[in-house]
């Protein structure tokens, strides 16, 4: 019985050390792979070379970048369309991209799960509909938009297309990972508890056998 307990302790120690080593390696690898960019301030502080920053030409993001960051210099990576943002990030042509528009946010949150958004929004844009200066349906359009707003339909559409996260979040992944770790360790200790009970029962049986 004593040898059985010793073997159990020895096996438990080996498994715990192996588990701890694996988790530590995973943590260090994950930490090293995380983006070092936390927001627009890192770009302003030249943490990333401008040649590795993608900007879609002709957008409000380009205008913002020229005025507040590069001081008119156009030595950044020129992109033709929003789709180029995702392509160039995935093939490592650029390290970051300053994106404008809800379509880019939706695509990253729901289509390109290998990409992520960092930082808080740093400039506001307005959504507008281009119309002829004199248009006979203008008043009718205003009424329809007002009705959609009052009925909550616009809010529902916004929630459906811009507040969804098909790709999920890193926090949920981390919580599920921790849950798996706890479950695996719980199973390990349960196994050792069973071994201990068997060892105790064996000890009692041998002791009883000697008395008989």
From TrEMBL:
Molecular function GO terms recorded: ligand-gated monoatomic ion channel activity
Membrane-protein topology: Multi-pass membrane protein
Name of this chain's protein: Ionotropic glutamate receptor C-terminal domain-containing protein
PANTHER family hit by this protein: IONOTROPIC GLUTAMATE RECEPTOR (PTHR18966)
Keyword annotations of the record: Glycoprotein, Ion channel, Ion transport, Ligand-gated ion channel, Membrane, Receptor, Transmembrane, Transmembrane helix, Transport
Superkingdom of this protein's organism: Eukaryota
Signal sequence residues: none
Residues that span the membrane, as ranges: 185-206
Cell location: Membrane
Pfam families: Lig_chan
CC annotations in GO: membrane
Annotated Ionotropic glutamate receptor C-terminal domain residues: 2-194
């Amino acid at each position: 019985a004593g040898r059985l307990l010793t073997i159990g302790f020895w096996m438990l120690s080996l498994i715990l050390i192996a588990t701890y080593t694996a988790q530590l390696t995973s943590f260090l690898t994950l930490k090293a792979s995380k983006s070092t960019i936390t927001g627009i301030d890192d770009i302003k502080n030249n943490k990333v070379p401008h040649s590795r920053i993608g900007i879609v030409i002709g957008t409000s993001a380009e205008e913002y970048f020229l005025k507040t960051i590069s001081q008119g210099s156009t030595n950044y990576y020129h992109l033709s369309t929003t789709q180029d943002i995702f392509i160039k990030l995935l093939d490592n042509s650029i390290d970051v991209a300053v994106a404008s528009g809800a379509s880019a946010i939706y695509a990253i949150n729901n289509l390109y799960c290998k990409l992520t958004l960092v930082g808080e929004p740093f400039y506001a844009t307005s959504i507008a509909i281009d119309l002829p200066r004199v248009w006979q349906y203008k008043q009718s359009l205003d009424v329809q938009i007002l009705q959609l707003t009052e009925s909550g339909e616009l809010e529902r559409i916004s929630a459906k297309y811009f507040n969804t996260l098909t790709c999920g979040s890193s926090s949920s992944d981390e919580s599920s990972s921790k849950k798996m770790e706890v479950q695996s360790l719980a199973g390990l200790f349960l196994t050792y508890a069973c071994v201990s009970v068997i060892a105790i029962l064996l000890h009692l049986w041998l002791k009883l056998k000697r008395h008989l």
